[in-house]
Amino acid sequence: MLEVTELVSGYQRGSRVLDGFSIAVETGKIVALMGRNGMGKSTALKTIGGQIKLSSGRIIFDGADITGREPHQVNAAGIGYVPQGREIFGDFSVEQNLAIALIGRGRRAGNIPDWALDTFSILRERRRQRAGTLSGGQQQQLAIMRALVGGPKLLLLDEPSEGIQPSIVQEIGGVLKRFVAENNLAILLVEQNVDLVLDVADRCVFMENGRSVEEIEDVSALSVDPAVLQRYLSA
Amino acid sequence: MEFFLSVGLDTLNFTLSLLLVTLGLVVIFGLMNVINMAHGEFFLIGAYCVIAIQSAGLPFWLALAVAPALLAVIGLLLEELVIRHVYHRFIDTILATWGVSIALKQTVIVIFGPTSQSVVNPLPGPTEILGIVYPTYRLTIMAISLTLAIAIFLLLYRTYLGLAIRAVIANRAMAGSLGINTRRMDRGTFAFGAALAGFAGAVMAPVMSVDPQMGVGFLIPAFLSILVGGTNSLLGAVLGSGVIGAATTTVAAIWTQVIAQVVVFSLAIIIIRLFPEGLTGRR
Fold it and tell me: Among A50, A200, A217, B215, which residue has the fewest nearby CB atoms (within 10 Å)?
């Protein structure tokens, strides 16, 4: 459903943080994108999401060419984005954070569906509280739900486990698997946390110097043979 | 007693007039962080709308609709042609909008001439309030300013459109990724700020001498109000207008206008030194 071919992009004109990056994500699958810091994982998500302009390459989503689209157009095509560091609106309440996503999808912002507040129960409990007062893990749950409440077909998820206690990481992993199973959601997951990848991912793609270099079809093989992990993840 | 009441009313009048002029600036400078040197000219064009309407023999009140509509169009054009290329580039913004301000002012001079013109007061005569006789139109200005400030507060903080506007301002990239068309928001917000400035110009025209330099007189205290009150909240602008307005009027009533200016600027410097984020600013 998502086919990315030979992306070249960077933060300044002419810089090539992504240097011929290709990846494919199928409906109902979770694909993990792994690699050391600075290899271009976050840049890959931002480029697909339209936040960074690409200088060449092609992005096909759901049969449509969305290359070079603006972020709000990428969202309208059915791609949700959870950035690294969550980027929730700290001055807004939990409900208002979810409302913004509904407004963006052209839905009635007053009707936050029950499941959006109940999937992570803390969101209902704290729904009128300023989102900036939530803990890191709770903010992550909010950021994920903010992306899911609009009903995307693909979720771009950047390091959801970063700085978050293991029990919440586990809960998030469970929710992601459930959404994929129940709604045919596809997820492109950038992650350094091997346990989370082993738990949720169907496939794993390793990235080095702005391009994808190796693909593991069966993620469970990673736990049996950690040599690949060592090659791409250890410094 | 009467002296205090009349100074109090003058203070309130000046504060609310200042607030009226500041509202447009709150949107463009306070919320969008654009230093728009042409803001005084927006105000000016609003006032000249009244002149144009009056010389066409049409009723004054029509100008209160025409001025914001015209300025919204000017704001849209200006945003599209100039401002969008210089967002987040402070010096460039100042230079570009300064150029625009000169062009707008000269256009006004070409059309209406350089001399000052006066507007017929649409509500002549006084009204007695608390035992004091006060010009009716000034009381009207106060009511308009207060109503508009409340309306804008409700728009920004109690509607979903306001929520979306604030989301774009808080985190443009993320708001875009959540599906909000940030370009359209920028355009609309800037045009709205321009329309407010034009409206203020039209409302204030009957109590001012309408000439091509009139924009500057209110622009400086308006900028000061925002800086003193805190740049990114409406409440800050209200508070800032209050401080600047009250200081100016009371000092001027006791001593002279000149001393009032000295006191106000000193006060502003001290407040900004003590509260760099403004009186309502966090951190």
Answer: A217
Task: Dig out the tokens for B258 from the structure.
Answer: 């000149």
pLDDT at B283 over 50: no
**Separation CA B30–CA B238 (nearest Å):** 12
Other Cβ atoms less than 10 A from the Cβ of B260: the count is: 18
Chain A positions touching B179 (Cβ under 8 A) are 72, 75-76, 101, 103-106, 150
| Per-residue pLDDT tens over the stretch A161-208 | 998 999 999 999 999 999 999 999 999 999 999 999 999 999 999 999
- In chain B, DSSP finds a helix count (H) and a strand count (E) of 11, 2
Number of H helices, E strands in chain A: 10, 10
In chain A, residues with a C-beta closer than 8 Å to the C-beta of B163 are 92, 96, 99-100, 103, 109
Type of residue numbered B126: P
Sign of torsion, CA A107 A109 A113 A119? positive
Q: Using the 8-state DSSP alphabet, how is residue A27 labeled?
A: T
- Residue in B251, B266, B263, B271 with CA at minimum distance from that of residue B14: B251
Instruction: Report the distance separating Cα B273 and Cα B35, nearest Å.
Output: 20
How does pLDDT run across A73-122, given as a tens digit for each residue?
999 999 999 999 999 999 999 999 999 999 999 998 888 999 999 999 99
pLDDT band, residue B75 (cuts 50/70/90): very high
Cβ of A99 and B175 within 8 Å? Answer: no
Q: Of B167, B181, B182, which has the smallest distance from its Cβ to A100's Cβ?
A: B167
**Better pLDDT: B270 or A57:** A57
- Nearest CA to B226 out of B15, B90, B23 is that of B23
Binning chain A into helix, strand and coil, the percentages to the nearest 5 are 40, 25, 35
A79, A103, A107, A155: which to substitute to probe chain B, counting the most B Cβ within 10 Å?
A: A103
Burial classification of residue B82, based on how many CB atoms lie within 10 Å of its CB (0-12 exposed, 13-18 middle, 19 or more buried): middle
Which of A100, A107, A155 is the best residue to mutate to test the B interface, defined by the most B CB atoms within 10 Å of its own CB?
Answer: A100
pLDDT digits (tens, 9 = 90+) for B214-228: 888 888 888 888 888
Please indicate if any CB of chain A lies within 8 Å of the CB of B274: no
- Alpha-carbon distance of A227 to B98, in angstroms, equals 63
Taking a contact as any Cβ pair under 8 Å apart, which residues of chain B between 159 and 188 contact chain A?
A: 160, 163-164, 166-167, 170-171, 173-183
CA–CA distances in Å: residue B83 to residues A51, A233, B18, B67, B74: 21, 45, 25, 21, 12
**Spatial separation of the C-alpha atoms in residues B104 and B106, rounded to whole Å:** 6
